Amino acid sequence: MNIEVRDRSEAPVVALLPTAIADCDIHHSPKDLKRIYPYLERRWQQHIAEYGLIPRQAYQAGPAYAKGQPDASRRDAWPPSGGRPGSDLAFMAEHHLDPNNIELGVLNMIRPHPGAFPNLDLSAAVCRALNEWQIAEWTQKDRRLKASILVPYEDGPAAVSEIERCAGHPDFVQVLLLTRTVEPMGQRRYWPIYEAAASASLPVGVHAFGFGGSPPSGGGWPSYYIEDMVGHAQSAQNALTSMVIEGIFERLANFRLVLIETGFAWLPALCWRLDNIWAKLKSETPHLKRPPSEYIRDRVWLTTQPMEEPEVRKHLFDIVDWIGWDKLLFASDYPHWDYDEPARALPLAIDPAQRTKLFIGNAKAVYRI
Question: Edge-to-edge strands of the sheet including 21-26?
């Protein structure tokens, strides 16, 4: 939901919502990349200065679509002190955390998320530096915030090493990957990452976007930004299907998955289709002991942003009833242009127990806070 820009410059900072909220998708970033240099070896500082950060895509920098620039952000989210939206902790607190009564904020770094850099050594080095930077500059300075572990997810052993290095820190609550990987996410090259996360009792968060080196559609690069945006849900469906059918949930009893910023209304139809086809073809996947939907119902959570807004609003409740009120985590997607304001995100009133689950209870359960 995109909202109008408001001038809050003269307004006192007071919470607009009476109940505390867990926001499970907040985007932060360095004001400029040199801010992470104190946590990065000099050889990599020199490498970045000379060669830059090359994404695994056909374009040399950033999204290919104009609306994605600059930083796909709200016009009122640019810090007065300068820098990118999400780069100023004090401004974020004043602009979002305080007025929206955020008790728990989960930070998801996607610009940059170095996990898919073609240079795997650079990928590992920048992930490590950003993880150190997140703790020193964000979570230790505002105790409401928790961070996601960035890993070089196209390099399994290096990713495992970073998970094991960070897992004991109480400020990290999940391992973060992006949906558009080099291969489908259930492929065996990614299994060590899931095993390490499960061993550390950390969920794996899979956020929309990323660059896997291929177009976001099966037929090539789309013409319009809207196609790229709609494609986020498609890439999440592909990732989830691959992980279920390849047997990740069957193999790893402690594995938990959070799908972030991919929508959620598509889930019932995907589950119905998976179950229907699996019933006819189950001999192909003898490693699956239950229908696909049962694995999904047990151990998959989804964030609410972008919030579905059907014309008949009660249909939203039908969808959530099927998914389960305990499987959705509120997320604002701050500071992006399609941000969901907590006070306006739900189109219908819900009972207090459901509201508590959706806005904070489910997040504390899945992240074990």
Answer: 21-26, 102-107, 145-150, 172-178, 204-207, 257-260, 300-303, 328-329
- What size, in residues, is the chain? 369
In the chain, what are the domains? 21-366 (3.20.20.140)
Number of H helices, E strands in the chain: 12, 8
Which of 279, 278, 288 lies closest to 247 in space, CA to CA? 288
DSSP string for residues in 101-137: TEEEEEE---TT-GGG-SSHHHHHHHHHHHHHHHIII
More confident residue, 355 or 2: 355
Q: pLDDT, tens digit, for every residue of 142-178?
A: 999 999 999 999 999 999 999 999 999 999 999 999 9
Please give the DSSP secondary-structure letter assigned to residue 96: I
Tokens read off for 211: 């660059």
Query: What are the tens digits of pLDDT across the range 183-202?
Result: 999 999 999 999 999 999 99
